[in-house]
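In this supplementary section we document a worked example of the pipeline. Step one takes a protein sequence of length 100 as its only input; no multiple sequence alignment statistics are reported here. Step two produces a three-dimensional model, which step three serialises into structure tokens for compact storage. The input and output of this example are shown verbatim.
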Amino acid sequence: MDASSAELLAIREAVLLFHRSVWSSLFVLEIETDCVLCSQWIGDPSSVPDIFRSIVADILQLCEGLEWSIKSIQRSENGTVDKLAKSGISRSYPLLRVKP
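The serialised model returned by step three reads:
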């Protein structure tokens, strides 16, 4: 899996979590990514390569009806998230459990 795929899948999971939560009716979803291409593709779906089109379509469908935004951030601003993601790779149990 390449970095763009991993980032798009992570964004989709985060949007799904937000969408299914009570937060979705109370807050604006602000998506921040250090992947400039992912930000561009979500902001302009006509520019998405075919291989990522279905993931971006899923993200946009989940965002329908939500107030949301996406922006690119510097990788240096993303240190805490990067550490959390790397620690989750070796975790034998979920960091977050969501019960229906």
